[in-house]
């Protein structure tokens, strides 16, 4: 079983949330920017690195607002993630200034970034 920590950024601006758009296995879906913590890496460093790699964004990390335990065998992607047990730490973040450069290391299947409207 693969156990790891992951840090995710919840970036909200003008009633929209920033997500990564992925296309895999003939499906399009969205995830929060962020990813796995490397051995010896501080969780905040992991989140900043992942946001640079995936979104081309420099972030300011705020409060942790949610923790999710992801157990792959209980998920609709069990065929691919059956060995995963991941704890995800989600932080409220800001991008300052609100502009982005090209992603340096996008995720496999990543086809873009999108601001998705959220209701209040």
UniProtKB/TrEMBL annotation:
<protein>
    <submittedName>
        <fullName>NUDIX domain-containing protein</fullName>
    </submittedName>
</protein>
<feature type="domain" description="Nudix hydrolase">
    <location>
        <begin position="2"/>
        <end position="120"/>
    </location>
</feature>
<keyword id="KW-0378">Hydrolase</keyword>
<dbReference type="Pfam" id="PF00293">
    <property type="entry name" value="NUDIX"/>
</dbReference>
<dbReference type="InterPro" id="IPR000086">
    <property type="entry name" value="NUDIX_hydrolase_dom"/>
</dbReference>
<dbReference type="InterPro" id="IPR015797">
    <property type="entry name" value="NUDIX_hydrolase-like_dom_sf"/>
</dbReference>
């Amino acid at each position: 079983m693969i156990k790891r920590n992951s840090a995710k950024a919840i970036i909200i601006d003008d009633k929209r949330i920033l997500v990564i758009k992925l296309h895999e296995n003939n499906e399009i879906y969205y995830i929060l920017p962020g990813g796995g913590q490397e051995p010896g890496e501080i969780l905040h460093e992991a989140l900043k690195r992942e946001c640079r790699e995936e979104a081309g964004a420099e972030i300011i990390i705020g409060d942790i607002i949610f923790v999710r335990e992801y157990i792959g065998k209980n998920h609709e992607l069990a065929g691919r993630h059956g060995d995963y047990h991941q704890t995800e730490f989600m932080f409220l973040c800001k991008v300052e200034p609100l502009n982005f450069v090209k992603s340096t290391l996008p995720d496999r299947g990543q086809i873009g970034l999108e601001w998705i409207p959220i209701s209040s």
